[in-house]
Design brief:
single chain, mainly beta, Porin, 14-stranded antiparallel β-barrel, two-stranded antiparallel ribbon
């Protein structure tokens, strides 16, 4: 008879990935979290200096010889749906977000769809202070292709034969579920400075997520606290900094960093070379290189494991790429910022 613990090999591997990379259930945390605003706070839907934006992030981690990396992909679209006629800084926004984790050569896929509505109002006549709220719902599922997995009962003289039954009656796909999310953000801005701070929550209800019909395996809520600040250091140099603290039952993390935007020309939509450095607590140092050209922005990061990281002695690599497409129509925001 097959040892009992082998029944849990696949699920253990998935949970190990989730623990090691701080990918909290259906809502992964990107190194470039600032380039995935809807996964940080639903109140950020429509936030920024464009009428709409299309954002894509792709993260490949534990890339190494002979290994299938764990990949995380997000695609989102958000914008301003309705603006107040006599005061355009007051608007209703909305957004859609798709997130996917994929591993074990595609045998494991975890998908999440978010639907968001937001509202922003100015708190004074000069539009220096503003408040945004966001509400949304999500649908999540986890798919396991057992046809791509091998078990000891399928071992024959010619190797693993996946046409044979697994004899694992407890294995099943995780049941899909719906959940809620909400957030609020305060903004201060003037001609040369911008500051945002907000808090958000995802998956307010604990939901079961098990491939072994285990009722004790649940997705607890996740909460984010985030802030960012931008200002001009000179006519050609912009300073940006931001950070996010994430806490969930039994697991907390934080990421902070700075970016310098080097303005390369003096057009209305300048070309900006972004160079930055972020630190994820006890995990990694993350250099960032990005370029903004007209309505397109790209960014690339590489995670350098720190000595205290669980992966400090690993030769495996983690890269992340982000792409942002913004509408040609832009507001008069004076500060070029990679996450606005």
């Amino acid at each position: 008879m097959m040892p009992k613990h082998l029944k849990y090999i696949f699920l253990t591997a998935v949970l190990f990935w989730i623990d090691q990379t701080a990918l909290f259930a259906q809502d992964p945390i990107f190194s470039q979290f600032y380039s995935s605003p809807l996964s940080v706070n639903p109140a950020l839907a429509g936030n920024g200096d464009a009428n709409w934006r299309l954002v894509a992030n792709h993260r490949s981690q534990w890339i190494g010889e002979g290994l299938d990396p764990l990949t995380t992909t997000s695609v989102s679209f958000d914008g301003k749906i309705f603006k107040q006629r006599d005061k355009e800084t007051n608007y209703i926004g909305g957004g859609l977000l798709f997130l996917q984790d994929k591993g074990l050569g595609g045998a494991y896929k975890s998908n999440s769809f978010h639907f968001i509505v937001s509202s922003h109002v100015s708190l004074d006549q000069d539009d220096n202070n503003g408040l945004s709220i966001g509400l949304g719902g999500s649908y999540s599922n986890t798919l396991i292709d057992f046809g791509q997995l091998s078990f000891s009962q399928q071992l024959s003289s010619s190797g693993f034969n996946r046409a044979l039954p697994t004899n694992e009656p407890f294995l099943s796909n995780v049941k899909p579920y719906f959940s809620l999310l909400a957030g609020i953000t305060y903004t201060y801005s003037d001609e040369g400075t911008n500051f945002d701070i907000g808090v958000a929550g995802y998956r307010f209800l604990k939901t079961n997520r098990s491939a072994l019909n285990d009722p004790t395996q649940v997705d607890p809520p996740r909460y984010n606290i985030h802030a960012d600040y931008q200002t001009f250091l000179s006519n050609r140099l912009v300073f940006n900094t931001n950070g996010m603290y994430v806490f969930e039952s039994g697991s907390n993390s934080y990421t902070v960093g700075v970016n310098f935007g080097h303005i390369l020309d003096e057009t209305d939509q300048p070309t900006v070379l972004n160079t930055g450095l972020w630190y994820r607590g006890n995990e990694a140092i993350i250099p960032y290189l990005g370029l903004s050209y007209k309505n397109v922005q790209a960014g690339l990061t590489y995670d350098i494991n720190t000595a205290s990281s669980n992966n400090a002695n690993s030769t495996l690599k983690t890269f992340e790429l982000s792409l942002i497409f913004r509408s040609p129509q832009r507001t008069s925001r004076p500060i070029p910022c990679p996450w606005k």
